[in-house]
Design a protein that fits this description.
The complex is a heterodimer of chains A (537) and B (153).
Chain A: E1 7-13, H1 17-28, E2 33-36, H2 54-57, H3 66-69, E3 78-81, H4 113-117, H5 127-141, H6 166-179, E4 184-185, H7 224-229, E5 233-235, E6 239-245, E7 251-257, E8 263-273, H8 276-286, E9 312-318, E10 334-336, E11 352-357, H9 362-367, H10 381-388, E12 392-399, E13 408-416, E14 422-427, H11 432-451, E15 456-460, E16 497-499, H12 514-530, H13 532-535
Helix pairs in contact in A: 1-12, 5-12, 6-11
Chain B: H1 13-23, H2 33-46, H3 49-70, H4 79-92, H5 94-108, H6 112-117, H7 140-145
Helix pairs in contact in B: 1-2, 2-5, 3-4, 3-5, 4-5
The chains are: A alpha/beta (537), B mainly alpha (153).
Chain lengths: 537, 153
Amino acid sequence: MVQKKDIVDVLVIGAGASGAAFVWSLAEAGIDVMCLEQGGWADPKSYPPNGTDWEIRRQTDFNPDPNFRGLPEDYPVNDRDSPIAPLMYNAVGGSTIHWSAHFPRFHPSDFRVKTLDGVADDWPVTYQQLEPYFDLNDKMMGIAGMIGDTAYPAKSERQTPPVPLGKLGDTIAGGFDKLGWHWWPSDSAVLTRPYDGRAACNNCGPCDVGCTLGAKASTDISYWPKAIANGAVIETHARVREITVGKDGLADGVIYYDSEGRLQEQKAKVVILACNGIGSARLLLHSRSALFPDGLANSSGLVGRNLMFHPYSMVTGVFDELLEGHNGPLGCSITSAEFYETDLSRGFVRGYAFQVVRSTGPVTTALGFAGAPKVSWGNNHHDELAERLGKTITIAVIGEDLPEAHNRVTLDNVLTDSDGIPAPKISYTMSENSKKLMRHGIGSATEVLKAAGARDVMVQPLARRAGWHLMGTARMGEHASNSVVDGFGRSHDVKNLFIIDGSIFVTAGAVNPTSTIQAMALYIADYFKKNSRQLLD
Amino acid sequence: MKSGNKYFSNSQLPLIESVLNRIIPAKEKMPGASEIALGFVDSAVRGSSTLSRLFGAGMAEIDVKAHNTYSKGFTQIADDQKDDILRTIEVESPDFFGELVKQTYNGYYTNPRVLELLGLDSNAPQPRGHRLEEGNFALTENVIKRGVAYRQV
């Protein structure tokens, strides 16, 4: 049982990618820090890869979409007004429980899009400033990879060698090589050798339904044990309803429901939001008071706005030979930054990345996966399945969607979670620039698959259930008029409130955001530690 | 209950078996779906009120359509006639038919015998894992030769 204190110095809401890194960093410096998480501790023994029904549980209790999963700790999301459905997981470790652990960093240009391309805004932080935090985070998570990638400034030594390419990786690398395009073995938060007391990956395949071995770095096994050993306190199944403010306009704690559903209050000197790009905005919008009638920290009106997802196109090539793609981490093989940087002759600004995805088991293949439609029923069924099973390579085209105020999170008028807290409602449309960029990406993904020997290519132009990346809804900036937080995640309006998750991203880049989310959390934690006397006086 | 089934009664078994064998027919070494997936589909339908509702209405509709079209029960008509009926149902009752196909595939492709016939490991992914060839990392040398691939700022 958690020892309750009347007031804690630092209260963090959310125990996922960013919350774990931040809490660890503060606890290591001896700061009094408590975390509230609405999910529980995941039990790796019960993860689907230990059973033969793993592909069915991918559709049910391990579905990445909370609307399908519907566990008591989840909240529903009204996504009817969005072509992309947000995905997330609620547990200690958050969405790192079900992520595929593809671990690219944002590129240097991502932090300077206004200066370079005249769009959106520059970040108040640069790649160079974040570099030591990328490195520290890599060490904490344990990254498999290979140094020398020409698409980045030189990186520090990776913790373990890269994930094997396998026949599938060799085949597609051959396609990139033929075209003279950039490619590189992915940085992956999957250990290929034992590291830091954790086991090495045995290439079982479905990282997305939880890693029973602990080779994949979810934060419940990377950061949390160390944070707790250093004195951090975490209370699970604790669902925060709202952040409370004192007469002075500062945050003074939270109201939450505990694991028994009892109302609790926790006072704190500083409150930190780490609930992801949808959850943090939801909580701020729900924390209304006379002092903050439009929601907390929202004098700019930007809380919930500028939601960015990364549109995904799935382009799947079918090959004649067996590529054994179901062996090895699903989302981690190789990546390409050939079309990452702006080239206006292509007809759009900014760019996209390729993430090569392996194939998967027979149920998922039969039901349709990554651009390949459902295998038809009837007389042709067996032949169609045999043509695809183990013979496909998927290129996920991940595009940079620029911030647009009308893409937003609001509170739904009707839908709530099991505690009656309003669910988020998502409104999102794709811009013309994004559409052009994705069309180009589909064309070049098709080209490289054909160069690698694909005899057929199938395309899903915009994947619906692909809202893995939630960014932008409480953006950073210098001024209170055009941003929610400053360059250290600190609210312009409420000086003892910080936001440290993907909400604060100014732009989305075109790569998976987790390593950058965590580097930002560690960077903010360092700022916090340097100024703790003033922040916690 | 003689059948030991949970949802489909003895008198309903011929119809569901006949339907499953059109979704995934037996072919060469591969068995038909009724032999493999009937138990799975039966449990899945009993275990979900949504599926019970969809299958209750959907299965009846299949038999009604067969009678209206061919004056015979679904189990009595030829395979191509069965497929015509099912194609109509697929268009008219997409929710039911989508679940029929999905649950059939779920049951069929989690069956150890089917997995072995496909040349796959019938064990769970863990604890044994899979073997994965290292691959040819030497090709990265060509990438390095082409030089810096990011915009320096």
